[in-house]
């Protein structure tokens, strides 16, 4: 993990082909299955996978509170890259941006995931995002292992 006050970078290697990992990010039913840290339940997701299309992800926190994350896709380059705006629907629109880069291992059995979250408003938000993204990628790894490698 590297970061500065406005940017956070989280990396994880997952033993699954790049196509499977890309699909996990871009198919609502799959995203629901792995999204969120351990204490968060993904209660719903919608994905309009096209540049200019919108996504929305519902998170139920441990205390029962529900927050919705939403944004617009800015770049979609299957199976290597997604770029989207990021806003937590609890106030003013956000200018935050997330880039997900995927790189296949030489033999195609694993994928290196790099999540870059930019334009974070403050250090406390960056710390929350670090916990959230680490938990999400851990959940993606568990999901990939549970559903098989191919």
Automatic annotation (TrEMBL):
Entry-linked InterPro entries: ASHA1/2-like_C, START-like_dom_sf
Domain named Activator of Hsp90 ATPase homologue 1/2-like C-terminal: residues: 15-141
Cleaved signal peptide residues: none
Pfam families associated with the record: AHSA1 (PF08327)
Cited Gene3D superfamilies: 3.30.530.20
Family: Belongs to the AHA1 family.
Protein name: Activator of HSP90 ATPase
């Amino acid at each position: 993990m590297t970061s500065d006050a406005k940017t956070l970078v989280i990396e994880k290697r997952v033993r699954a082909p790049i196509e499977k990992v890309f699909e996990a990010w871009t198919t609502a039913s799959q995203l629901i299955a792995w999204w969120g840290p351990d204490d968060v339940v993904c209660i719903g997701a919608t994905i309009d996978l096209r540049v200019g299309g919108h996504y929305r992800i519902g998170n139920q926190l441990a205390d029962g509170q529900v927050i919705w994350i939403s944004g617009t896709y800015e770049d979609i380059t299957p199976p290597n890259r997604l770029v989207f705006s990021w806003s937590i629907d609890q106030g003013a629109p956000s200018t935050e941006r997330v880039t997900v880069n995927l790189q296949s291992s030489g033999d195609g059995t694993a994928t290196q995931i790099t999540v870059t979250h930019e334009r974070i408003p403050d250090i406390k938000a960056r710390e929350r995002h670090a916990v959230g993204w680490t938990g999400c990628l851990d959940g993606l790894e568990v999901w990939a292992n549970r559903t098989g490698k191919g």
